[in-house]
Amino acid sequence: MLIRKLSLFGAGCLMFLTALLPDKALALPAYARQTGFSCAQCHFQRFPLLNDFGRAFKANGYTMVGSQATVEDTDLSIPATLNAAFVSKVKYEKRNGSDRAGDNGQLNTGQYMVPDEGILYVAGRVAKNIGFQAEINLVGTANIAGFKMPFVIPANDDITFSIVPFFSDSEGPAYGFELLNTGAIEFARSFEHAEETSAQQYLGTALAGPNQGTTGLALVMHSKMGYLSYTPFIPKYPFDNANTFSASRFLSYIRGVVTPEKVGNFDLAAGFQLWKGTAQVGPPDTRTPYHADAWAIDAQAQGKTGNLPLGVYLTYGSAAKSVDGSTANLFNSSIDANRKAWTIAAELGVVPSKLTLGAAYRNAHSGDTDGTDTDNAVTLAMTYNLVKNVAFQLNHSFYTYGTSPALADIRNLQGNQHTTLVMYSGF
Questions:
Q1: Residue 408 CB-density burial (10 A; 0-12 exposed, 13-18 middle, 19+ buried)
Q2: CA separation for the pair 291, 325 (Å, rounded)
Q3: Rounded to whole angstroms, how far apart are CA atoms 351 and 14?
């Protein structure tokens, strides 16, 4: 009953605001300050979803400048002002499970997070063909949540090569270089409920959580028809210094994407991801073994049906079961069955640039057992852009679980419904 009331109240408020509020505000994050563009120049429907212009800006290392003055000299070309932005999320979450005291207690009774996330971005141009992005977490203990520094080497008018050293505490090896909106990285997705709407996030490829994170070096070839990247990476081992890594060898991440010419009103893209390898991570005297074995394919179509913007996102992924007596797979510790999922999600801008309605379906198998591990979800979503840099999103997911013991525990403790109301802002 509470969930129904929340949904109806949220829908009523957002529709009311749609009728009253103007549509002329501009977003002002770090890259908008550097280029002089509204955020709508780079984003499809809203931040963080990239359009074709946004993909080109990111692929060229965040180096484009516009109206902002630059300091120029021999081998020097930097913005006159260091560009920064503060990005925050305020969130309310509730599940309908029975656990009121354990790990799920707060979510089952309703949990407010003010803020859920607070990130200071310092980013932009370092030189003509060098950019950077630093994410400083301001919630809890301040730390570097992410860092990358793309070195872009033009081969001709169409093809560029990039070398991107990076660290991320919650995005996985794809953080080095990723341009699609399918959830290939956790940040780039259309729905707040990531695991319910992206196979990659369901598999856990973000390597997020306590004492987790990733560092690596993305090696990229990019053109207007797509890109191919190879990223040797190391999962985090819990050192005293959060950004220090050591390993006997690197694990491997490979990403390929094709971006053909537009078909009618739609911008299309499709790709694959592959995680492979075994490594010993940590100090030489106490190394921890890690093994990666997963793959995914994804596709997206972004354009218009009539005058209304429409985005459609498809993903499929599988993580191999672990071998008994061997190093467990980072993405599936079960020795019983593969962990796998496919998703389809769509979002329609019923009031362009203001109000979108979305729906997604996940068909998944958790890997707990072979045949009784169904873990499906249906998600409904509504997003309202108050202004271009402040958005509200309401997600509600319904779950259908199989009869495996692990899923029975989840069903009993966490319930079969999940509601999230989140406010995003960036300035």
A1: middle
A2: 13
A3: 11
Sign, CA dihedral 101-106-110-112, equals positive
Structure tokens at 24: 């002329």
Contact (CB, 8 A) for 228 and 273: no
Which residues are 227's β-sheet partners?
222, 257
Indicate the DSSP class of residue 157. S
CB-facing half-sphere around the CA of 367: CA atoms within 13 A: 21
SS3 421: strand
Tracing tokens 């949904």 back to the chain, one arrives at 7
Interval 218-229: pLDDT, tens: 999 999 999 999
Task: Give the Cα separation of 32 and 277 in Å (integer).
Answer: 39
Instruction: Name the token pair of 288.
Output: 């921890």
CB atoms within 10 A of CB 313: 27
Locate the DSSP E strands across 236-326: 251-258, 267-281, 288-305, 308-319
Cα angle value 269/32/73 (rounded, 5°) = 105
Q: Is the pTM of this model over 0.85?
A: yes
- Please tell me the distance from the alpha carbon of residue 300 to that of residue 200, in angstroms, as a whole number: 14
Please list the residues that pair with 276 across neighbouring strands: 252, 293
pLDDT tens digits, one per residue of 373-385: 999 999 999 999 9
Q: Which two structure tokens, joined as six digits, stand for 64?
A: 């484009």
Q: Report how far residue 415's alpha carbon sits from residue 95's, in angstroms, rounded to the nearest whole number.
A: 6
Q: Is the pLDDT of residue 200 over 90?
A: yes
CA separation, residue 230 to residues 80, 138, 161, 253, 268 (Å): 34, 31, 12, 6, 22
- Closest listed residue to residue 366, CA positions, set 323, 416, 403, 315: 403
Burial class (CB in 10 A: 0-12, 13-18, 19+), 275: buried
